[in-house]
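Morning F.,

Quick status update on the modeling queue. The single chain you submitted on Monday has been processed. Sequence for confirmation:
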Amino acid sequence: MPASRQYLVEQHTILSVVVGSRAFGLATAASDVDRRGVYVAPTADFWRMVKPPTHVEGPLPEQFAWEVERFCELALANNPNVLEVLHSPLVEQHTALGAELRHLAPAFLSRKAYTTFARYANAQFVKAENRRERGSEPRWKHLMHMLRLMISGASLLESGTMHIDTGPYRERLLAVRRGEVPWDEVCAWRDRLSARLDQTLAASPLPELPDTTRVEDWLISVRRRSLTNEGSPA
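Structure tokens below.
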């Protein structure tokens, strides 16, 4: 295996998208271009004592990619950051396998999203509260993304489909980012979204669990196809 891990991204990427503020419709002139992707390590590399890495940073700034198996594990757990890769409207690169992975997106979704989205959002809120207790201003950008995540999670539970664009909430969320919305109003909005998440869970069209069998069958097929096409990400 080459010494640099970045060859996996450069030569074996099957999907690369832009996420973050640009995909959410919340970009400003100062926003970075956050890239996330998926690569398929050559099957033969798993026969070595040292296994391929589960993720790689770079080679571009703000770029991060997962090996396809690790990506599937996280997506099956309904990790919000990973699900956003499957639903970003800003696709910069995809191969035939990348298109298959995007088509497989519904198989990953389940009511697990209730726990993961709420947990991520709560972690950000606790950090903001702790900063206020220490006499510091909360990081308003983080609070904006907390609220955006809760909106996305509630919409997912209600509709069974994930949408990451903030739509009609854009201006209000940007006002939060600029620190123009008082703390009490941010807390009240969070409370309403928490109640919405709770109320939508029982009636959600999402299945209790993701379709692990379908995802695993696809992953096995990717490994098999890789053996016959090691020089290309397919």
